[in-house]
Amino acid sequence: MGKNSFNIAVFPGDGVGTEIMQEALKILRLIADKKKISLEFSEGYIGGAAYDRFGEPLPEQSLDLAMQSDAVLLGAVGGPRWEALEYKFRPERALLGLREKMGLYANLRPVVVFEELLDASPLKEEVVRGIDIMIVRELTGDIYFGQPRGVFKEKSGRRKGVNTMVYTEEEISRIAVRAFEIARKRKKNLLSVDKANVLECTELWRSVVSEVGRDYSDVTLKHMYVDNCAMQLIRNPAQFDVIVTTNLFGDILSDEAAMLTGSIGMLPSASLGKDKALYEPIHGSAPDIAGKNIANPLATILSVALLLRYTMARPAEAELVEKAVAGVLQEGYRTQDIFQEGKKLVGTAEMGDLTWKKLAGLLN
Ligand code: IPM
Ligand code: MG
What are the per-10-residue average pLDDT scores of the chain (364 residues)? Predict the structure, then answer.
């Protein structure tokens, strides 16, 4: 028997974060009850909510909770109220701080199209049917963290903005290893995405990924430039199995890939380090719809499935959560982001309750 008790740090964050988190926690509690997993939850403030209370987006006590946890479950951060703040006070810094301090270098973003949502995608059904892509995004390097950075005054008095793309060999090889290991358990196709025709940094990326690939002769490795990949994701997304890429390219490509599924409200993510983990939906805090009970809680619920799979080593239970989501969609229930004529429009809490009931049925 593996470990059976876990500390979960819960950070609802801002905007729709609180609403979607409630639904996700119900799902997690149900599994824990039925499967006799002992969970200890500790809730903390991050993002704008933390800035309002403590004057900083990632207060010490929240960081401590995260560092002591087996896993962090996070809603979303950000909103227009905090957009004018200096960079270090912005809600987004909390996310970046957690990623950096917890060493969460591997961000897994599974892009799976539910059969029931085929018609919700802006692309043709035949293009998106059967899509099952795992995007492995490097999360603690690149232009997100590289120095120098900032806006500087030049001698002429004019300003200059600087950000720096940096990758060390170690950073590239550890994410490559993760990606190869994942590909090995899937269809054994790994695509590494870079801009090696222009950026030296990604020339290094390409050669280190290829070197790591020598230890994985069972996995087929290919390389693609990021601009071409952006196009191929729309033209023929079915060609992809596992994609490994840099922090910035992964950020952009994963939003693009999300739309294959019909809505960014459907995509979960896992951010993994050596022994730490954080789970969150890939969407933002959606301040325009916050507090209205209309946000889609499924990305966060599916993030719970990833938590079960990667932190708790409970793949069977993870699948049940995914099945419950598919079941509710099959019955025609939709939040507004995935709503279409003839379907049943439900709110955040109802969608959570329906999924809870479906899951309870599956667990019996
Ligand atoms: C994401 C988000 C974040 C990122 C923002 C909110 C800092 O877009 O997780 O994809 O750029 O990584
Ligand atoms: Mg993003």
Answer: 89 97 98 96 97 97 98 97 94 96 97 88 91 97 97 96 98 98 97 98 98 98 98 96 98 93 89 96 94 97 97 96 97 94 96 98 94
CA distance 327 to 305: 15
List CB contacts of 32: < 8 A, sequence separation 6 or more: 38, 39
Ligand 1: which of 16, 72, 99, 251 to mutate, most ligand atoms within 8 Å of CB? 251
Phi, psi (deg, nearest 5) at residue 173 = -70, -35
- In whole angstroms, how far apart are CA 221 and each of 109, 125, 135, 281? 19, 28, 14, 28
CA-to-CA distance for 235 and 237, rounded, in angstroms?
6
Do the Cβ atoms of 139 and 246 come closer than 8 Å?
A: no
Query: What is the number of alpha carbons within 13 Å of residue 269 lying toward its C-beta?
Result: 30
Residues 6 or more apart whose Cβ sits within 8 Å of residue 302: 266, 267, 268, 281, 321, 322, 325
Q: What's residue 2's pLDDT?
A: 74
What pLDDT score does 116 carry?
Answer: 87
Tokens of 352: 């959570």
Look up residue 235 and give its two tokens: 């033209």
77 Cα nearest atom in ligand 1: 6
**Quick check: helix, strand or coil at residue 55?**
coil
d(CA 2, CA 25): 22
What residues act catalytically? 144, 195, 227, 251, 255
Residue 205 CA to residue 167 CA, distance in Å, equals 8
CB 147 within 8 A of CB 156: no
> Which domains, and CATH codes, for the chain?
1-111+262-364 (3.40.718.10), 122-256 (3.40.718.10)
Q: Are 242 and 78 contacting, i.e. CB atoms less than 8 angstroms apart?
A: no
Buried b (16+ CB within 10 A) or exposed e, 207-230: ebbeebbeebeebebebbbbeebb
